[in-house]
Design a protein that fits this description.
Elements: E1 3-5, H1 10-19, H2 24-32, E2 37-41, E3 53-57, H3 61-70, H4 74-88, H5 100-115, E4 118-122, H6 127-130, H7 135-143, E5 149-153, E6 158-160, E7 170-173, E8 180-183, H8 188-201, H9 203-206, H10 210-220, H11 233-257, E9 259-262, E10 265-266, H12 270-274, H13 280-293, E11 297-298, E12 301-305, E13 312-316
């Protein structure tokens, strides 16, 4: 699988122009782009909803303020972030049609070019490493309350290209040919639409659990030894079942939004899609196909130095969009030269 570093600088940009054989139209577009926009060659190759190459500029003060205000709520943060990216992208794009891997690539590229050259992540100590320590060392590790972190240089992050043969829609047929479905990959807009749908659907029922949610939120802020708010076991069980119902509906809506056609009929609305009768076994096979054939973007397996042994080891890291929130206290002196005027 083709792989490329996420680092963007003049040398790599020139290399990309050769590797990707930018045609005359794209080259003219690149030449016309104003100062301040970073070229990003998306690893989706232009096979989803965005062009292969887009140009995005840095956040301004108002952008950073909007993101900071909204970061307490994931949906509000995502909506604010998408609005800012729509404004800051040179090309006219539908930000709701971004795949989450495309959005991740854009954010981390902006971080690297304008804000920080590395990211700090909590180190995931796994059993294969833990079992190499003797009993006394294991006891020390378990009793240690300090969170171990590692610093990951952004230049060491790798991205995979989507397969050259990939295209949408993806066709699924039952073995007896009686069921035929066409699907597309999910987009970030699907997440927002599904969240709104679930909120509206459970609006009245959600009110019954406000006291439980408040108690859980309060208990999660307590330090060791502080007294927790009591929650009746029966009420907690009921709330867990309610939360599971919400999660199940959210997943169903996400899946339904990805249905392009059902038995030859184009799906025009979410209401139509929700009525499609698709066996769980087919969903399972489709998910496996996507995992095996449609992966692209940031590679989660990253080589780091273990904070326990100082030896190089490969660990799997997951990144959240919030981790790429601009920090005005950070410094990256490679984007400008500042001096007293002569």
């Amino acid at each position: 699988m083709e792989r490329q570093s996420i680092l963007v600088d003049d040398e790599i940009i020139e290399e990309r122009k050769v590797i990707t054989k930018v045609d005359k139209v794209e080259k003219q577009l690149i030449d016309d782009v104003p100062y301040g926009y970073v070229p990003i060659e998306l690893k989706s190759r232009g096979k989803l909803s965005l062009p292969r190459i887009i140009h995005v500029k840095d956040y301004n003060v108002d952008d950073a303020l909007k993101l900071s205000i909204s970061q307490g709520d994931n949906d509000s943060f995502l909506k604010a972030l998408l609005g800012i990216l729509e404004k800051n992208t040179y090309e006219k794009i539908d930000v709701l049609s971004l795949h989450e891997k495309e959005l991740e690539e854009i954010l981390i590229t902006l971080t690297n070019n304008f804000w920080a050259k590395s990211l700090d992540k909590v180190y995931p100590l796994e059993m294969d490493e833990f079992n190499t320590f003797n009993e006394e060392q294991q006891k020390v590790i378990l009793e240690d309350e300090e969170t171990k972190t590692v610093t990951i240089p952004i230049s060491k992050l790798n991205l995979d290209y989507i397969k050259e043969e990939f295209h949408e829609p993806i066709k699924i047929e039952s073995k007896d040919k009686k069921l035929s479905i066409e699907m597309r990959l999910s987009r970030v807009g699907d997440t927002l639409r599904a969240a709104d749908y679930v909120t509206d659907y459970f609006y009245n029922e959600e009110k019954k659990y406000e006291d439980v949610k408040d108690a859980i939120a309060y208990n999660n802020t307590l330090k060791k030894g502080q007294e927790k708010k009591d929650i009746l076991p029966s009420k907690m069980k009921e709330y867990r079942e309610f939360s599971q119902s919400k999660a199940a509906l959210f997943l169903k809506v996400i899946q339904s939004l990805c249905i392009v056609s059902y038995n030859g009929k184009k799906i025009e609305s979410l209401e139509e899609a929700l009525k499609c009768n698709i066996p769980q076994s087919i969903w399972g096979n489709y998910t496996k196909f996507v995992e095996d054939n449609c992966n692209f973007g940031l590679v989660n397996e990253i080589e780091v130095k273990s904070p326990y042994t100082n030896k190089s080891i490969v660990r799997r890291f997951h990144f959240q969009f919030l981790e790429f929130l601009p920090d005005f206290n950070s410094q990256n002196d490679e984007g400008s030269i500042i001096s007293f005027s002569s």
